[in-house]
Design brief:
The protein has 171 residues and is mainly alpha-helical. The chain has six helices and two strands, in the order H-E-E-H-H-H-H-H. The chain has one domain: Arp2/3 complex 21 kDa subunit ARPC3.
Length: 171
């Protein structure tokens, strides 16, 4: 399968990567040294939903690597780059599956949020933080859980609103 990425898709991915960088690096803030609050994952999830898993994953990689070069905002770690790639790619895969099975948008967005926040933010991010800080993995999971739950709820609402109102107009 030799599917090329269109210039239109690249332009949208670039804009979403830039938005992710701005939201996470400049408008994000650390609650504790290992806990950051930002809306930088929202453009990555939108990229996956709108442009597919490959472009979504590339958007995540680009946003993380360029974001680290511009403003580290913490310690660089390829685990975080992998998490950003998953945050862009998995919504694309989930959206493809939901369209194929005719699953409604509320459930599609719920599945995306569950994957991104339960798997990536709640389970994988503490692995990378544990490697960087030496703090025990279980302590990091438990201490981050309230933040992850609040973040997931807010992003569910925002992603659903975007996907239902704006996404159909720009596809």
């Amino acid at each position: 399968m030799n599917k090329k990425i269109s210039v239109d898709s690249l332009a949208k991915a670039g804009a979403l990567a830039a938005l992710s960088i701005v939201l996470s690096r400049y408008f994000g803030f650390f609650i504790t040294p290992t806990m950051k609050f930002s809306f930088g994952t929202l453009p990555l999830m939108i990229s996956g939903m709108m442009l597919g898993p490959v472009v979504g994953g590339l958007t995540g990689i680009v946003s993380d690597l360029i974001g680290v070069m511009i403003n580290a905002g913490g310690t660089p770690h390829l685990g975080f780059t992998f998490g950003a790639m998953l945050t862009g790619a998995m919504p694309g895969l989930i959206s493809l599956y939901c369209k194929k099975k005719k699953i409604n948008l509320k459930i599609e967005v719920l599945l995306i949020i569950i994957f991104v926040y339960a798997i990536s933010h709640a389970l994988l991010t503490p692995v990378w933080l544990s490697q960087l800080t030496g703090n025990p993995y279980t302590v990091l999971i438990l201490s981050r859980m309230p933040k992850v739950i609040i973040d997931a709820i807010i992003n569910y609402i925002l992603l659903y609103l975007f996907a239902s109102k704006i996404l159909p107009k720009i596809k």
